[in-house]
């Protein structure tokens, strides 16, 4: 018996379904075990992953430095890997050690890996501690900002803008309605923290956002933001910089 690549009963599809099911369970276990590094109970859906990675596709075939942060089990990584042009670089940052090990296996199993082996690195670290010595054209963030303190969110966003090249794009997402659910189900201090995080991100949106879309087909639905680092801010040394004005 023969199968086509698109046949849902083919061995390839069967292996893919089994792998996604295994990853789904792993994601759920880690979300319970480590709430700091996992902000959902399921990996990002394909539509969400594609939208987060689209700025890289739009840059093709230009060489690009790409940073993915909070990669989890690799839903977005799978979209990024085949889109990396020859000569480009992809740094994948994952603070959860179990996920980082999984991502290394995912990268090793990537088609055409010999061509891309020197282009892709997995870092088991927090992005605040990342020291690759590179600046990035595209940063894709999967970090669960809703789980963090306002101070942590400000530190991470500041780090993203430090790592972006002038004109570079940051993409990230948040789940629709999650803040309202948490407001009603959590304590007053927790609700206050949620509002502060939302207000902080809103200030970044007001200053740097170039697009926002809702992915209704994701579970749960998610809102994707694109933020661009300006290219017109210059410091005293003449170097291009950006310092978000969060005092408004």
Spell out the key features of this protein.
248 residues; alpha/beta; Rossmann fold; seven-stranded mixed beta sheet; globular
Which helices and strands, and how do they pair?
Layout: H1 11-33, H2 46-59, E1 65-69, H3 77-80, E2 89-93, H4 97-108, H5 113-116, E3 120-123, E4 136-141, H6 150-163, E5 164-175, H7 178-185, H8 188-208, E6 209-215, E7 222-228
Parallel strand pairs: 1-2, 1-4, 2-3, 4-5
Antiparallel strand pairs: 5-7, 6-7
Helix pairs in contact: 7-8
Short recap of the structure:
With 248 residues, the protein is α/β, with parallel strands linked by helices. The protein has helices spanning 11-33, 46-59, 77-80, 97-108, 113-116, 150-163, 178-185, 188-208; strands at 65-69, 89-93, 120-123, 136-141, 164-175, 209-215, 222-228.
Describe this structure in words.
With 248 residues, the chain is α/β, with parallel strands linked by helices. It has a single domain, classed as Rossmann fold (3-Layer(aba) Sandwich), CATH 3.40.50. The protein contains eight helices and seven strands, in the order ααβαβααββαβααββ. A seven-stranded mixed β-sheet has the order 3-2-1-4-5-7-6. Strand 1, helix 3 and strand 2 form a beta-alpha-beta unit. Helix 7 packs antiparallel against helix 8. It is globular, with a radius of gyration of 19 Å. The chain starts with 10 loop residues before the first helix and ends in a 20-residue tail after the last strand.
**What separation lies between the terminal Cα atoms?**
66 Å
DSSP helix count? 8
Spatial order of the strands in the main sheet? 3-2-1-4-5-7-6
- Give the helices and strands as they follow along the chain: HHEHEHHEEHEHHEE
Supply Rg.
Answer: 19 Å
Mean pLDDT, all residues: 78
Largest sheet: 7 strands, mixed
Q: Which architecture per CATH?
A: 3-Layer(aba) Sandwich
What is the 3D form? globular
């Amino acid at each position: 018996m023969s199968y086509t690549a698109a046949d849902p009963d083919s061995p390839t599809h069967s292996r893919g379904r089994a792998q996604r099911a295994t990853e789904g369970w792993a994601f759920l276990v880690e979300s319970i075990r480590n709430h700091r590094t996992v902000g959902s109970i399921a990996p990002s859906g394909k539509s969400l992953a594609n939208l987060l990675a689209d700025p890289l596709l739009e840059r093709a075939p230009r060489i690009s430095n790409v940073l993915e942060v909070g990669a989890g089990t690799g839903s977005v990584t799978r979209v990024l890997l085949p889109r990396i042009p020859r000569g480009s670089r992809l740094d994948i940052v994952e603070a959860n050690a179990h996920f980082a090990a999984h991502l290394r296996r995912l990268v090793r199993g990537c088609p055409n890996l010999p061509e891309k082996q020197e282009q892709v690195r997995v870092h088991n670290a927090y992005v605040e501690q990342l020291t690759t010595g590179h600046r990035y054209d595209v940063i894709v963030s999967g970090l669960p900002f809703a789980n963090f303190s306002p101070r942590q969110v400000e530190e991470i966003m500041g780090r993203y803008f430090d790592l972006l090249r002038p004109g570079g794009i940051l993409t990230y997402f948040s789940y629709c309605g999650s803040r309202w659910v948490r407001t009603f189900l959590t304590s007053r201090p927790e609700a206050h923290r949620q509002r502060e995080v939302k207000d902080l991100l809103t200030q970044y949106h007001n200053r740097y956002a170039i697009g926002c879309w809702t992915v209704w087909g994701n579970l749960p639905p998610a809102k994707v933001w694109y933020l661009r680092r300006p290219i017109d801010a210059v410091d005293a040394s003449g170097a291009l910089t950006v310092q978000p004005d969060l005092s408004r």
